Amino acid sequence: MQERIQLGQSDLRVTRICLGTMTFGEQVAERDAHAIMDRAVERGINFLDTAEMYAVPARRETYGATETIIGNWLAARPGLRQKLVLATKVAGPSRGMPWVRQGSGMTQEDIAASCDASLRRLKTDVIDLYQIHWPERNVPAFGSIYYDPKQERTQTTIHQQLEALEKLVRAGKVRYIGLSNETPYGVHEFVRLAEQYQLPRIATVQNVYCMISRALENGLDESMYRLGVSLLAYSPLGFGLLTGKYDASGTEGPDAPKGARISSYESVRKQRWGRPGALEAARRYNALAREHGLTPTRMALAWCYTKWQVASTIIGVTSLPQLDEDLDAWGTTLSPELLAKIDAIRWELRDPAA
Predict the structure, then answer these.
(1) Residue 316 has pLDDT above 70, yes or no
(2) Span 17-57, pLDDT tens digits
(3) By CB distance 3.0 to 4.6 Å, which of 40, 187, 285, 291 could disulfide with 45?
(4) Which residues have C-beta within 8 Å of that of residue 218, sequence separation ≥ 6?
(5) Where is the NADP-dependent oxidoreductase domain (predicted)?
(6) Mode of pairing for the β-strands spanning 17-20 and 47-49
(7) What range does the domain containing 122 cover?
(8) What is the pLDDT of residues 98-135, one digit of tens each?
(9) Domain membership flag for residue 265
(10) Within a domain: residue 286?
(11) Could you tell me the pTM of the whole model?
């Protein structure tokens, strides 16, 4: 796991696997989170991703908990911080979480205050990659597929957001910026305005990408390729559906075993991962993996790890065995025959968890 890849046009060089941390402080206790991060570093991972709104599912009581856990871990390991690339996110408009953001917008003052709070919790002087968690403007996201101009409530333009981020870069609080849950329009506009007004240029976009959610291939991948922006792929295991652990569930969606991540996310059942079509597609892919002598997890991760679109894949785990399993999948090669069968299922079922 020593290979490093450049993110966008930045000088950030990261491992092809990134450790996601959104369960730290909710499903994962602090002591266990420290052990997971220690193991990841031992195995060569240099890239950690978090967010101000974590842990998830988002609750007032756990807001900022994940960053605090990471900050405590770093403080107890002098000299480690400079060896890591640390990414976090500023939350977009409230989305029903008033403890994160008041009102329906995301002002320049919000961005600055959020950055300062993240720096304090992370116990660091600088954030290597600071991302906007979801667009300030109205977009179809988190299970929605149609854009509705009647829902537009923009208060802070993309230009103004870039100006706020520029102040953080100039102050030395942020090295590079990125986006998350973005659209082709958003990527183009952030790049266009940055180049026109000499503002910070986005290095990355963090979007969902897995076998049951490949909508990124419907245009966003071309935009990112041509603009020199790197993809950080999240949910490569389709929120657990592509591990096979829900294959025996009923037809109305995944029945959650006690302790499983999806059992803690009631809202997920109303979004992309809880759709019966998503489970149906996952079952097909999981069966295909077994037919070819692979575990569903290994096939799903190998598929994501080797896609040309992906710079780094974000894995989220709740235990050391899960971490080792995900890392051990690195280096797995899928045959052309198997890749063709994966694409055939996609052609038939499309993107049920888009």
Answers:
(1) yes
(2) 999 999 999 999 999 999 999 999 999 999 999 999 999 99
(3) 40
(4) none
(5) 16-345
(6) parallel
(7) 4-240+308-331
(8) 888 877 778 999 999 999 999 999 999 999 999 999 99
(9) no
(10) no
(11) 0.95
